[in-house]
């Protein structure tokens, strides 16, 4: 928890992210399509000499946001000291972010939703309510890639999955430099048979790495 305690003494706004990438899978199914896609995206990143690390959110014990608003004063989430407390330093220190998630009932999974909600602590709010707000990590050259997997073949069945990841990241100040939406894929690890998709995933990682180098 040492790095988390250091964060509490610093303002994210004044920290410079490092040229590396952190990737998160929102799937509860270990070794499934989302995990495979994330691995290929990050391989593309690593092949371009940018450090990349990953984590399955289902393996990290953390709670959803409880709306206590303590983060408005503390500038980091202190209402819940749990697995997210270990993730915040990784997110803050990485200029690149990759989110991959399957579609659950027209939306992202509960794990991904809880994760995104816990990023609320990075917003800066005026005392007036409702009032103006801003993102402390904005303006730091942060880049992101998002990908989603849906069982159905019709695009509308993916529902809000992509936007549920894209909109919060853009609000936080990330530039979405690549998206990958995969339809008609459900069976465990089925995406391994779809060579063109895996190539696209790796190319997204390459694009992300180049964007990070350019913004460094």
Question: How would you describe the overall organization of this protein?
Answer:
Helices cover 36% and strands 20% of the residues. The chain has helices at 2-8, 33-46, 71-74, 83-93, 110-117, 161-172, 195-215, and strands at residues 18-25, 51-56, 94-102, 123-125, 133-135, 143-149, 175-182. Helix 2 crosses helix 7. The radius of gyration is 17 Å and the shape is globular. The mean pLDDT is 94.
Task: Write the H/E string, N to C.
Answer: HEHEHHEHEEEHEH
Lateral arrangement of strands in the main beta sheet: 2-1-3-6-7
Work out the helix count: 7
Beta-strand percent range:
15-25%
Radius of gyration: 17 Å
Low-confidence stretches: none
Percent in helix: 25-40%
Query: What is the arithmetic mean of pLDDT?
Result: 94
- The dominant shape is globular
Termini separation comes to 28 Å
What is the structural class? alpha/beta
Largest sheet features: 5 strands, parallel
Number of strands: 7
List keywords for this structure.
216 residues; alpha/beta; five-stranded parallel β-sheet; 7 helices; 7 strands; globular
């Amino acid at each position: 928890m040492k790095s988390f305690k250091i964060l509490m003494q610093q303002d994210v706004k004044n920290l410079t992210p490092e040229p590396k990438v952190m990737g998160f899978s929102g799937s509860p199914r270990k070794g499934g399509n989302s995990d495979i896609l994330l691995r290929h995206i990050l391989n593309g990143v690593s092949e371009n000499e940018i450090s990349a690390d990953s984590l399955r959110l289902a393996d990290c014990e953390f709670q959803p946001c409880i709306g206590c608003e303590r983060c408005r004063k503390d500038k980091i989430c202190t209402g819940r000291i749990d697995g997210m407390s270990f993730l915040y330093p990784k997110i803050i220190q990485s200029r690149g972010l990759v989110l991959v998630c399957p579609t659950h009932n027209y939306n992202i999974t509960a794990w991904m939703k809880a994760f995104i909600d816990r990023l609320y602590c990075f917003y800066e709010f005026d005392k007036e309510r409702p009032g103006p707000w801003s993102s402390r990590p904005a303006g730091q050259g942060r880049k992101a890639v998002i990908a989603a997997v849906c069982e159905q073949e019709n695009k509308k069945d993916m529902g809000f999955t992509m936007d549920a990841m894209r909109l919060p990241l853009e609000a936080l100040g990330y530039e979405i430099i690549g998206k990958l939406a995969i339809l008609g894929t459900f069976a465990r690890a089925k995406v391994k048979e779809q060579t063109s998709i895996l190539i696209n995933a790796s190319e997204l990682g390459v694009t992300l790495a180049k964007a990070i180098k350019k913004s460094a």
